[in-house]
Amino acid sequence: MARYRGPVEKLERRLNADLGLKGERRLNGKSALEKRPFAPGQHGQRRTKISEYGLQLQEKQKAKIIYGVSEKQFRKYFKEAERREGNTGSILITLIETRLDNVVYRMGFATTRANARQFVTHGHILVDGQKVDIPSYIVKPGQKVEVKEKSKTNTQIVRSLELTNQTGMVEWIDVDKDKVFGIFSRIPTREEVVIPVEERLIVELYSK
Predict the structure, then answer these.
(1) Rounded to two decimals, what is the model's pTM?
(2) pLDDT tens track of the chain, all 208 residues?
(3) What CATH number is given for 100-184 in this structure?
(4) Which of 86, 73, 69 has the alpha carbon at shortest distance from 187?
(5) What CATH architecture does domain 8-96+196-206 belong to?
(6) First to last CA, the chain
């Protein structure tokens, strides 16, 4: 399945959830979801009953859209989570959180995961001093993630770091804003990862 390139706010309205796709626009209260909290289209305001399968599928779609991963990638993460000991749903979410594009976003170097993915693919990001341009690269605890020297004055990165004064930082990452680098100190717990997804339904969907 190709990556979705249409109006992302329509996805949020369709799923009735803030998926963090618009960055600063959302922070300024200008998101389409706030203005029109109903599904897009002529019949968007109609009340419809969703089946159990529909709810499960909806939660999977939310997770895939939030993290910007394909069905093939998502299924790969699920299989890895299922292989590990513990709660499969919780492991799934925390595993995807270790993707490099997500870590760049969590460090405040980008306002959205899509922007973070672009910074990575364009070679602006270093991991332990080496350029890594693969968004799905798994960052390990203790690794240093930084913006390369020539990119530290990039206006988007500078503005994104300014906005962290408003959004705050997650507890499992240590960031030096002045030097534009961060340390991925540990893998977060599921309770620390605040996203509008019920991973239990995803596990039920894949377990059928």
Answers:
(1) 0.85
(2) 446 565 566 676 677 777 765 665 555 555 555 555 555 554 446 667 889 999 999 999 999 999 999 999 999 999 999 999 999 999 999 999 999 999 999 999 999 999 999 999 999 999 999 999 999 999 999 999 999 999 999 999 999 999 998 888 999 999 999 999 999 999 999 999 999 999 999 999 998 7
(3) 3.10.290.10
(4) 86
(5) Orthogonal Bundle (1.10)
(6) 22
